[in-house]
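Appendix B: a complete holo record

For completeness, this appendix reproduces one full record from the ligand-bound portion of the collection. The bound molecule is PBG. The inputs are the chain sequence and the ligand SMILES; the output is the full three-dimensional arrangement of the complex, encoded as structure tokens. No fields have been trimmed.
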Amino acid sequence: MSPPNVSLSAPASSSISAPERIVIATRESRLALWQAEHVKARLEALYPACRVVLLGMTTRGDQILDRPLAKVGGKGLFVKELETALLDGTADIAVHSMKDVPMTLGDEFTLGCISAREIPLDAFVSNRYESLADMPPGTVVGTSSLRRESQLHAQYPFLAVTSLRGNLDTRLRKLDEGQYDAIILAAAGLKRLGLGERIRSTLPAEISLPSAGQGALGIECLANRSDIVECLQPLNDVDTSACVRAERAVARALAGSCEVPLGAYAEVRAGALWLRGFVALPDGSRILRSEREGAVEDAEKIGRELAEDLRAQGAEEILAELG
Ligand SMILES: NCc1[nH]cc(CCC(=O)O)c1CC(=O)O
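The structure of the chain with PBG bound, as generated:
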């Protein structure tokens, strides 16, 4: 018997159609524009008849550079203006670093896809030292995140940790001007911008457990745009999507709306999802860790259970202290 007559050479997307035009709302930082251009190129390759255009926007998160974001409204500041463009129809999709997407979206929005992730780890960047372990006591590490700060204090108590804000180029400039001996950044952002050679070493997850969603891109659209959701499916990566859902379930269960020193990182290994998480005080004086393994299909449940375990260990006291 000969096999059924299917053409193996037909592109997987041939049965999916896309609208004639897709407008991408994007922030205007170099990284955000790279990410939007990347999605534009992938959509145009999948749907040659579709015209994809970028709509650049400034968000409150881009404007406020003098205060820690946690104090002025957190992650939502980077997505609100983009969501408004989706609601009023000036844009069809918004491309986000999943790390910057609030843990709960409004009912009118959905994440149409989460694409394969770039390296999820943090990067050590310095003009003077190879790694954190090389840094003498009292030298200065710049980071803007409570998650990185708490882990640094816990593991390298003799280093001075100071605040660092601004987009990637600004942060690197501040390092090069000598304001810091080293800085910690997401490796993914540096790689995307062709700045991978600035990475002196990557910090293993044991040293700096990444943030929920780090390194992954998500595409948001209106929940009622089934045409858009459908045409985004070829960009979805099943494993990344499960990992990010598990990580976000941890953050959702523990962080609520306030900014908490918290890491959550999942990997798919030999078909199973392995999730690690921690919650800490910013000064690293308390750090609670947990890990869990389970079926990829149970991603969110694994995340909720890990959060429960952290609560059982006393996460509540940490959250209460953070106010
Ligand atoms: N918080 C800012 C941010 N949001 C996304 C990235 C880039 C990497 C990624 O996609 O996770 C960065 C930079 C950083 O944390 O150093």
